[in-house]
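Re: weekly structure request thread

Next one in the queue (438 aa):
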Amino acid sequence: MKCIACGTDNNLKDRTEHNGRCSNCQHPFVFEPTSMRAPVKFTDVFFQKAIADISAENTLYFTPNQFYHFLNRRLKRKATTTSAVGCLVLFLIPIFGLAFVLVNSEIGRYGLILGWLASITVFTLLAILNALNTYSRKRSSVHQRRNTASGLQLIGAAAIGLTAIASFFGGARTVAVFLGFSTNVILGMGAIILGYLQKSRLGKTTEVPYVDRQQFRDWVQRWTSVNGELARLLPAPSGGEAAVINPDVSSYSFDRLIVVESAAIAQMLIANNLHLEHNAAILSITGYPRNIFSTVMAMLRRNPDLTVYALHDASPKGIAMVQQLTNDPQWFQGQTVKVIDLGLLPRQILAQGKFAVYTSRDMALEAKLLPADVRQKLSPEELRWLAAGKFVELEAFGPQKLLQVIRIGISLGVGADADGLSSWDGDDGMFLSTDSFG
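Done, posted below.
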């Protein structure tokens, strides 16, 4: 295990003999993977890289909740060691290995065909059982489920192809061979269909975090006690620590307003200077930052060409946010403003199947309170998704992703009725479209 201070490799014996310190520079190790419970095992280098990645090499501020989601996602990715193609390779290796043994045996062509067909049957069944087990595990990530389902589809196609080759070139026409051929074709088709069904339900399947929040807080505290404060980790917003507006410019107005659901996200966007980049005011729907909220709103209402961008969770309160902006007297009731919804919507999660979906009883209760005019804009499937307490929050995305979403939205100036903003992929493995973003 490498020391983050000097880069020296220390094996377990070195770390033990030096009381958990580097044998070269005596810098303490924060994490000891041999004493951690599987599957959550990592080193100081892993944690340091997570900090560097979420902060874009210490250039972007991020919230504790963003780091929590990022670390959970990274740990789950770490546990996902097999891609869809990897699943196929693991399926083919034992089959061809067995075929090699059979060819070099004295069982004859008939025995070779039956052995080949039987091996395909066994390993296809194992692949199906593995896919069912992976999909049903609460701690499986959407990435793991998608990889396994895609791998199962490839395995199903390979099983049918290998069976056809064995039956065509084998030359044996017996009841046993016919049964083996039929069984494998059925299993192969079943694997393809099961993989498709699993992928189509990814947006409805919830996850359980690898790490609870208390454990996460303990890790951060231990890290900072040894290595110092995380320079770009923001504290919880207190309500008014943003800028103070100079009275001399209070008659000025912004071109844009970005409204986000939480004070933490508003604080993060302000800390990363998004407001300066786009001449935009940044406020939360809860009224953050409170010390300048009224003054900023007075400035905004004076601009007849103001454009409002709404960024919210896929949650009952988030989905109702656009209506709140247009109907609430605290915001723009009685005014004509252009509101562009860049927020998350259930139909994106259901369609894309690339999101980490969580469940909460509070969300289920909030779904019952959705106004009728908001409900009318949602499909029955979306309403069922919300009623089940499912949600995806903005802080599941890192700062780079959220800044990118807003920049694209402002650049193209389109809302939920457009065909699409942009597709993008990365560590989050998400997709952006104009039913807001994903």
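The beta strands are 256-260, 280-284, 307-311, 338-341, 358-359, 390-391. The chain has three domains: 1-60, 84-204, 247-412.
Next request, please.
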